[in-house]
Backbone:
């Protein structure tokens, strides 16, 4: 038996994943235990959970993998500082203490932290215990970890691979091929040119938090107009036919400072960045729509180039930008690939899973048996009634996190004197349906927690889409978030095509599709004149919540 622990940490969305003999046994983000959003610290709690789920201790691990190579990242940091010196000196000084204290000593740090996960208290005792571990520590390239997370759990025997994010060591996107248990990366786009960092620059400028608020920009985009597209292309980013971009760094400061943009960027768009938590104006909506439009264009060109380079029929994707489900929907509809599969934990958290699987398949050379090869999967274009699932993969529905027993839940409620009613599993669906029909909002807590950023029914808040007010009630009164934020629909598989321009499984909330033509409502002339958030309450379909 081979026990492999994958770790991602120290940037954002730290996570741990345990693979036993090629099977993903457990995976979780550290934020789910600490309640610190996008927690970047070493995933001590997540690692402890993974070990517990498998019934082993850190001593019984055979391999530990870290999702990127810190020394190569440090190389980028030094080279970038020298290129922009002395302008980046202050940010360089702020970064150095963490590197000198932790990141340059990653092997010792990982061993010490896993000793703590093993129950050793105290820094000195844990450091001493960590040195005694017999397992081997391996480091993977950041985008290779993303590529492994995209291909190995996919249903495909062979596929093209596309990874896109802000930046790893040097690469900001990569293309490659996966066959069997082998992955070959063919090309990469390198820092400081980055689609992910371009999107993050606009996240910062529109007043949201970088590496956290990008999904807010995507959600804001539909309320704006793409009025800045030409300005962005002419001044900020040259978009090439192969999907690569060339950034004009006169307008950005992320290479040498702590801000994403600078005064030239402010002058180009005639204003300062929006202050966080201040009112969102039409300008932010138009900026969001513009960068979203460019992102979709670039991703479609990248996908076209990958198809041309590889001649593959299927595509696997990962990296933070692959969480842009609006762009993914266009790739599915307009792209050249017959099938696509996107890692549900596409961001840095998924890197922990990727490095663990890469060690099993590439480093150890273990054979990969894909659902496609075993005949337990069929393409979304296969309309034959052969009884096979159209979307089987190795992610177990992304339900890889911890779960609570009925006894534990009851004990929690009792110790806090909270009233509750206990229903059988057979009774629960009817009870929930009646509560939803009565306009109630339900918090679902069932089974194992999801791995990745999407709530997929295990830890979800659900409401009745027949209520026109449901979207605003859930946003403002329950989740206490911006009114424009969207929700995902949940629909029976056999009725998907009836309600949406989509006829395939989408189990991970990674694709956006239009409402089916027959359910759309055409806006009136007066409604067409409305701008931005004013359109939020306009009825757009015969689905009351839409």
Residues:
């Amino acid at each position: 038996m081979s026990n492999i622990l994958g770790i991602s940490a120290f940037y954002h969305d730290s996570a741990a994943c345990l693979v036993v003999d090629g099977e993903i046994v457990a995976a979780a983000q550290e934020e789910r235990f600490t309640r610190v959003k996008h927690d970047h610290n070493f995933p001590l709690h997540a690692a402890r959970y993974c070990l517990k789920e498998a019934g082993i201790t850190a001593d019984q691990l055979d391999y530990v993998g870290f999702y990127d190579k810190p020394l190569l990242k440090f190389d980028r940091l030094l080279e970038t500082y020298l290129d922009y010196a002395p302008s980046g000196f202050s940010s360089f000084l702020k970064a150095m203490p963490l590197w000198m204290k932790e990141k340059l000593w990653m092997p010792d740090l990982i061993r010490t932290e896993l000793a703590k996960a093993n129950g050793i208290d105290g820094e000195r005792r844990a450091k001493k215990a960590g040195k005694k571990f017999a397992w081997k520590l391996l480091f993977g390239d950041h985008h290779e970890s993303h590529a492994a997370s995209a291909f190995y759990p996919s249903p495909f025997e062979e596929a093209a691979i596309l990874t896109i994010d802000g930046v790893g060591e040097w690469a900001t996107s990569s293309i490659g091929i996966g066959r069997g248990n082998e992955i070959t990366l063919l090309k990469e786009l390198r820092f400081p040119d980055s689609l992910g960092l371009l999107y993050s620059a606009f996240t910062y400028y529109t007043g949201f938090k970088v590496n956290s608020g990008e999904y807010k920009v995507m959600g804001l985009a539909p309320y704006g107009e793409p009025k800045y597209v030409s300005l962005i292309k002419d001044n900020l980013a040259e978009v090439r036919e192969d999907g690569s971009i060339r950034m004009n760094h006169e307008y950005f400061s992320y290479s040498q400072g702590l801000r994403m943009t600078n005064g030239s960027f402010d002058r180009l768009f005639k204003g300062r960045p929006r202050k966080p938590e201040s009112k969102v104006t039409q300008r932010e909506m138009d900026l969001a729509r513009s960068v979203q439009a460019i992102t979709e264009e670039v991703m479609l060109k990248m996908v076209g180039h990958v198809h041309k380079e590889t001649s593959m029929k299927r595509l696997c994707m990962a990296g933070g930008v692959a969480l842009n489900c609006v762009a993914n929907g266009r790739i599915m509809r307009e792209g050249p690939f017959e099938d696509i599969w996107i890692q549900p934990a596409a961001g840095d958290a998924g890197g922990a899973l990727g490095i663990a699987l890469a060690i099993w398949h590439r480093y150890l050379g273990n054979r990969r048996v894909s659902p496609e090869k075993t005949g337990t999967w069929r393409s979304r274009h296969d309309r034959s009634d052969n009884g096979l699932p159209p979307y089987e993969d190795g992610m177990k529905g992304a339900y890889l996190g911890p779960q609570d027993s009925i006894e534990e839940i009851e004990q929690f409620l009792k110790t806090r004197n909270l009233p509750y009613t206990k229903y059988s599993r057979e009774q629960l669906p009817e009870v929930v349906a009646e509560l939803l029909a009565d306009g109630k909002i339900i918090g679902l807590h069932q089974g194992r927690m999801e791995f990745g950023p999407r709530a997929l029914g295990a830890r979800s808040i659900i409401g009745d889409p027949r209520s026109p007010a449901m979207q605003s009630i859930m946003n403002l009164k329950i989740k206490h978030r911006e009114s424009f934020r969207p929700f995902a629909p949940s629909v029976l598989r056999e009725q998907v095509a009836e309600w949406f321009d989509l006829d395939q499984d989408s189990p991970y909330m990674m694709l956006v599709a239009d409402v089916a033509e027959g359910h759309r409502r055409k806006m009136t002339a007066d409604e067409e004149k409305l701008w931005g958030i004013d359109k939020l309450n306009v009825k757009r379909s015969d689905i009351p919540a839409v």
Q: What stands out?
A: The chain has three domains: 3-153+345-363, 187-341, 398-535.
